[in-house]
Design a protein that fits this description.
518 residues; Immunoglobulin-like; 10 helices; five-stranded antiparallel sheet
Length: 518
């Protein structure tokens, strides 16, 4: 019965899903005709060097509902740039809207043509149906023209090298531009550096001084390299040469930024973290700092690799996806290690014990905590003189008594059995006197020694002495000394400490003996 009911429900659900899917498909197909596209310009145009050309389309909403239009991102490559007048807009019923795409050519006539497929994602706001409309494919070419060499650096400063005939051209402007950029870099290096140091010396920390010492050299090289690359714009170079130089500059930028990040991470953050870990009382930072060091270096290296791949036109998405899959495989294979790692994090944050604490394990071992790591915890067995290394997942799921908390004081319990004919009050007084006379026993009002009759045994009356010692490491020595002193006083006072004994009564044994016949 249950199987038939489940089958019926599944069939009804499938039919309803197919109907809903067909209705949505029908809405999309019907809605595609609700937005009319009309080109207002030619799809192929020519443009001069470093000039712009505009493409225009008209979109009309013939439906009676509002539509939202999102335009696709225009491609920018080989020095070309493309930009919409607006990237998204809403079309109300009966509204006509104009879209413009402005394409700007690069700085040299020999760049390849620029082509782009312009598409729009349209959403019917009433039905939430989504579809794609193609506005058209544009092609922009650079028209031929006469190259006019520049005569001023930055279009402002005259070419001072024009007096020398070999430099009375774009090469003189190029040299002047490079020298200006170099002067800017040197000014920042030699003039701005003392000014920044003047303000950083007033701060209490030395971190800003260390960061300044690391970045001032690479910043100068970056400014000089940027000035060199940007100055090449005044020369009529081939686009292949310009593209190669820009990639070399981009690679240099990645290397310098990565080096600065690594030096700041290693020489500033890690050193500051180690100093803080030494001064702090918690062990969390001592254990997490090595992990932070390894993860930080890996992150800096991976960011540099991804940036380099993007620079050379390689999509790093597959690399990142592969790393994610590899991470899942490693996580599955090392689930025990990860479990110990997570348990270690809980031990460090929850802090049920710390390094130096004396703990009582579930199996009865008294151990001192030597080290809490990310994978395991090292314990020292104070009785057997052994070092025990336990996985964090095991110690986190085990009953562990921290004897050091809330303080180092420890209660000592001494149990002694006396004969049933003993004067109990006299025996209790002897035990109290022994405890009160011991120098390592606490005699304060809240922790004064006391004796209780705890049990009537088979052979003795059991008395238990409760007393406190100042340090838990003394509990076994003090307990032994108190037992020895009580034993001597009991013998002196004639108080017997009986050993287990059993009394057997035999009745009528002789009457039941079998007789011997002659």
């Amino acid at each position: 019965m249950k199987t038939r009911l489940l089958t019926s429900i599944m069939l009804v659900t499938a039919v309803l899903s197919m109907l809903a899917l067909s209705m949505m498909t029908g809405n999309v197909q019907a809605a595609e005709g609700d937005i009319n596209i009309s080109p207002m310009d030619e799809y192929s145009k020519s443009v001069d060097v470093e000039n712009s050309v505009t493409y225009r389309w008209g979109l009309y909403n013939s439906n009676n509902t509002d539509h939202m239009v999102f335009l696709s991102d225009p491609s920018e490559e080989y020095g070309w740039t493309a930009e919409y007048s607006e990237t998204y807009f809403m079309l109300q019923p009966g509204e006509f809207h104009t879209v413009e795409l402005t394409v700007t050519s690069p700085s040299s006539w020999d760049y390849p043509d620029h082509s782009i497929q312009v598409t729009a994602q349209v959403t019917d706001l009433s039905t939430q149906a989504i579809w794609t409309k193609e506005l058209g494919s544009t092609t922009t070419t650079i028209s031929g023209g006469t190259y006019i060499p520049p005569t001023k650096a930055f279009n402002v400063i005259d070419n001072y090298f024009a007096a020398f005939e070999p430099l009375d051209n774009e090469y003189g402007v190029f040299l002047l531009t490079v020298l200006i950029w170099t002067a800017v870099g040197l000014a920042i290096f030699f003039l701005l550096d003392p000014i920044v140091k003047y303000f950083t010396k007033k701060t209490e920390t030395e971190i800003d001084d260390q960061i300044l010492a690391i970045v001032k050299g690479p910043v100068f090289y970056l400014i000089a390299a940027y000035g060199l690359v940007s100055s090449l714009e005044v020369l009529n170079l081939s686009w292949t040469v310009v593209s190669t130089i820009e990639r070399i500059y981009g690679l240099l930028l990645i290397v310098l930024v990565s080096w600065m990040s690594f030096k700041i991470f290693q020489d500033v953050l890690l050193i500051w973290g180690k100093k803080y870990a030494e001064e702090s009382e918690t062990t969390m930072d001592d254990v997490a700092l090595p992990l932070f060091e390894k993860v930080g270096m890996i992150v800096i290296f991976m960011i540099a690799i991804i940036a380099a791949l993007n620079l050379f036109g390689i999509d790093p998405t597959m690399l990142v996806a592969g790393m994610g899959i590899m991470g899942l495989v490693i996580a599955f294979a090392a689930q025990d290690t990860l479990g110990n790692f997570i348990s270690g994090m809980f031990l460090l944050t929850d802090r049920p014990f710390k390094v130096g604490d004396l703990v009582l394990m579930e199996n009865g071992d008294y151990c001192r905590v030597e080290k809490i790591g990310m994978r395991s915890t090292k314990l020292y067995n104070t009785f057997d003189h052994d070092v025990i290394i336990l996985p964090n997942s095991k110690i986190a799921n085990e009953k562990v008594i921290n004897l050091t908390e809330p303080d180092n004081k420890m209660k000592v319990k001494v149990t002694i059995g006396v004969d049933y004919n003993t004067d109990i009050q006299k025996a209790k007084q002897i035990m109290l006197d022994v405890a009160n006379k011991h120098t390592d026993v606490i005699n304060t009002e809240d922790r004064d020694p006391f004796v209780r009759l705890v049990d009537f045994g088979d052979s003795s009356i059991n008395l238990k002495l409760y007393t406190w010692v100042y340090h838990l490491d003394d509990q076994w020595r003090v307990g032994g000394e108190i037992r020895e002193e009580i034993f001597e006083l009991f013998k002196k006072e004639g108080i017997d400490i009986p050993f287990p004994q059993r009394v057997v009564h035999m009745q009528g044994y002789g009457d039941n003996m079998p007789s011997k016949s002659g």
